[in-house]
Amino acid sequence: MAITRHIFRAALNWALPERCPCCGTITPAGGPFCADCWQQLQFLAPPWCHGCAMPFEYDRGAQSYCAACLAKPPKHDGIRAAVKYDDLSAKVALRLKYSGKIGLARVIAQQLVRHLPEQRDNIIITPVPLHWTRMWSRSFNQSALIGRALSAQSGIAFVPDILVRHKRTPSMRGLNAKGRRKAVGQAFSVHPKWQSRLKGSHIILIDDVLTTGATSDGCISVLKRSGASWIQLFCWARALRGESAGQN
C-alpha cells in the first residue's frame, strides 16, 4: 500500500505544474523556488569554523575553530549544510519527508554539490538510516534520496546500507539535547557485511536537517568505531547555535 501511494504521488508530482516548495506558488521554468523564497533562504558559506562550519561574522583565517570546537572537538570532520534551518527551509524538508515531494531530493543535492571536497577519491556517500517500520510506512528514506541524487550529480559512490537503525526512536520534537542523545542511544550499528571494510574509509553522511546533532553523532560514533577515518555530515539545513529546533 505504501509503495502504491508513493508511485501515485510521484506521478501526480510529474503531471502538475512545478510549485515552490516553500510557499506553493507556481514557479517559472528553470528553477524550483519562486524569486521571493529564493531570496529569503539563508545560504551558508565561509567564513566558518574549520571544525563544525558554524558561520563566523568575519574571516578569522584558514583552519580557525569556534570556542565550542576548541573546548570539545567534534566527532565528525566537518558539517556542510546548504541553508540555515528556519521556518522557510523547514517547509522544504517537511514536504520531502511527509508530502512525498521526492523531486526535492534532487533540488537539495544541487545546493550541496558546491560543498563537496575537490579531492573525491575513495569517498562514499551513505544516508542516516530509517527504522524498518518507518521505511515501511513512508516507503522511502528522504536522506537516501538526497544521497542518491548527490551521487548522480557528483560521481561519488552511493552505498545505502552501511548503517542499520535497529531501534525505533520516538519523535524528538520538544526534547532537549540530553533527551535526544538518550533517545538515539544504541540505535545504530554498522551492517555486518561492512564492519571489516570501513578501515581508513572516507564517508559523507547524509541527513535532511541538523538540529542538536544527536542522530548524526550516533551514526558517526559507530562508523568511527568500525574504522572510518574521515566523516563529513551533509544536510539541507542546520540550526545555528542557540537556535536548535526540529527533530534531529
UniProtKB/TrEMBL annotation:
Domain of life: Bacteria
Protein family per UniProt: Belongs to the ComF/GntX family.
Species: Sphingorhabdus rigui
InterPro entries named in the record: ComF/GntX_DNA_util-trans (IPR051910), DZR_2 (IPR044005), PRTase-like (IPR029057), PRTase_dom (IPR000836)
Entry protein name: ComF family protein
Annotated Double zinc ribbon domain residues: 11-70
TM region positions: none
SUPFAM superfamilies in the cross-refs: PRTase-like
